[in-house]
C-alpha cells in the first residue's frame, strides 16, 4: 500500500450520485431498501397467483413500475426516507395485507389536522434521521481508535478508487482527528442518547417525556418539525463544542435563530 501522496480525508458533503438512468440517487438507506424488496417480492408473488401480472413481466420491471406509481420515482435507489412508508404501504396493499398497509398510510402526511404548515411525518423522519446521523457520527469518532479511523479511510478509498493505490492519510486530517478526540475526552466524553433525551425534554418543555427504545421513532411521534429543527441545531452546536470545533460565537449564530 503506497503512502507517498497526501489527500484531505475530512468528511465533506457529496453531491447526489448519478444513477445509470440519469436521475439522482436518493438518500434511502440499505436498511430501508432491504425490507421494501422483501415486501415487494411478497406483493409480486401474490399478484402473480391472482393472475394480475402480465405474461413475461419480471419482478424487476414490475417493481420499478410500482415504485413509479406509488411515489413517482424510477426505482428504490432513487427514493428518499420520506418514501419508505408510502412504498411499504403500497406493497403491503398489493400483498393483501390491508391492516398493516393502513397503518403505514395513516403515518404519512400531516400528523393532525391542526399541524403547523410543513409539519408532516415525512419531514419529521428526515429531521430525526439527521439527528441520528449527527449523534452516531460523534459517538463513532469518540469510540473508535485513530488506527481504526485510518483503516476505514483506506477501505473507503479502495471502494471508491479500485484502480488507484491509497495515497495515505493527510497529516492535517490526522491532526484534526486527534484534536477532536482529545477535546471529547477533555470535555467528559461524548454526548450520547441520554443527552439527546434531556435536550428533547428541554426543547419541548416536557420533563417527563420518554422516547422509548426506538428513540428515533420516538422523536418522530412526539416532536413537531419546529421542535425537531431546534433539537437538530442545538445538538450539532453542542457536538461541535464538545469536539473543539469553531468558536462559541460562530456556533451560536444559527442556534440563536432557532431558540
Structure write-up:
It is a single chain. The protein is an all-alpha fold. The protein folds into 2 domains: 30-106, no CATH class; 121-251, no CATH class. The protein is 60% helix and 0% strand. It contains 11 helices and no strands. Helix 1 (30-49) runs parallel beside helix 3, helix 2 crosses helix 3 and helix 5 (121-143) runs parallel beside helix 10.
Which short descriptors sum up this protein?
0% strand, 2 domains, mainly alpha, disordered C terminus, 11 helices, 259 residues
> How many E strands?
0
What separation lies between the terminal Cα atoms? 49 Å
Task: Using the alpha-carbon principal axes, give the shape.
Answer: flat
Main pleated-sheet profile: none
Low-confidence stretches: 1-22, 254-259
Average pLDDT metric:
81
Number of helices: 11
Proportion of helical residues = 55-70%
Q: Structural class, from secondary structure content? A: mainly alpha
**Gyration radius from CA atoms, angstroms:** 22 Å
Supply the number of structural domains.
2
Tell me the β content.
Answer: under 5%
Helix and strand element order: HHHHHHHHHHH
Amino acid at each position: 500500500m503506497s503512502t507517498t501522496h497526501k489527500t484531505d480525508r475530512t468528511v465533506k458533503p457529496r453531491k447526489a450520485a448519478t444513477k445509470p438512468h440519469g436521475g439522482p440517487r436518493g438518500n434511502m438507506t440499505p436498511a430501508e431498501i432491504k425490507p421494501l424488496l422483501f415486501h415487494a417480492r411478497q406483493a409480486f408473488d401474490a399478484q402473480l397467483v391472482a393472475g394480475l401480472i402480465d405474461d413475461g413481466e419480471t419482478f424487476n420491471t414490475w417493481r420499478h413500475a410500482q415504485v413509479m406509481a406509488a411515489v413517482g420515482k424510477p426505482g428504490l435507489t432513487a427514493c428518499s426516507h420520506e418514501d419508505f412508508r408510502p412504498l411499504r404501504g403500497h406493497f403491503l396493499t398489493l400483498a393483501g395485507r390491508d391492516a398493516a398497509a393502513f397503518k403505514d398510510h395513516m403515518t404519512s402526511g400531516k400528523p393532525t389536522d391542526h399541524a403547523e404548515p410543513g409539519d408532516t411525518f415525512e419531514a419529521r423522519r428526515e429531521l430525526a434521521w439527521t439527528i441520528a446521523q449527527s449523534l452516531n457520527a460523534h459517538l463513532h469518532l469518540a469510540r473508535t481508535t485513530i488506527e481504526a479511523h485510518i483503516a476505514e479511510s483506506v477501505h473507503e478509498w479502495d471502494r471508491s478508487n479500485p484502480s488507484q493505490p491509497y495515497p495515505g492519510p493527510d497529516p492535517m486530517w490526522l491532526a484534526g482527528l486527534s484534536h477532536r478526540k482529545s477535546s471529547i475526552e477533555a470535555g467528559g466524553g461524548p454526548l450520547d442518547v441520554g443527552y439527546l433525551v434531556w435536550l428533547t425534554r428541554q426543547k419541548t418543555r416536557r420533563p417527563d417525556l420518554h422516547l422509548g427504545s426506538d428513540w428515533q421513532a420516538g422523536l418522530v411521534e412526539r416532536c413537531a418539525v419546529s421542535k425537531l429543527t431546534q433539537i437538530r441545531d442545538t445538538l450539532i452546536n453542542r457536538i461541535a463544542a464538545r469536539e473543539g470545533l469553531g468558536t462559541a460565537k460562530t456556533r451560536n449564530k444559527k442556534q440563536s435563530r432557532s431558540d
